[in-house]
Amino acid sequence: MDSRRDSTDGPEDVDAAFAEIVASLERDGMGANWPDPPPFDEPADEPVAAGIRPEGQPRVAVPEPEEDDDDDAHFVPPDPPPLPRLRAGTIAALVVIAVGVVLLVVPQLFGLSTQVSVPVALVVLCGGVGWLVMRVKPGPPPDSGWDDGAVL
Fold this sequence. Notes:
This protein is mainly alpha-helical. Helix content is 38%, strand content 0%.
């Protein structure tokens, strides 16, 4: 037995219910001003919107797709801008971080024991990272113009 016909949450005859909905919409005047679409055997004037143009509106020219002779044509992005030059403060912070890594990996190079060099190396590393973070300026650069786009 078909479980759809026995259910109480829907009509038994879907086609009859759809016809009833369409008839009620037509009684309300919905769709009365729509022109009939052209038959399938006749070519339409407008390829996309044939027969749907409201009365009194001008025809819209639909551009025909152009054929490309070059199948390998693709977007080639422009070269990226050069990286900005590092300032002295940035270079110094990177040197401090490098010294912290060397203290952590090879403490004998500075004549320190492992018990002393690990805390010193961690403090030096945190200091270098903190120095870099403190150099970050909030907001856009001063020469960016009035429209900064998305500022994160």
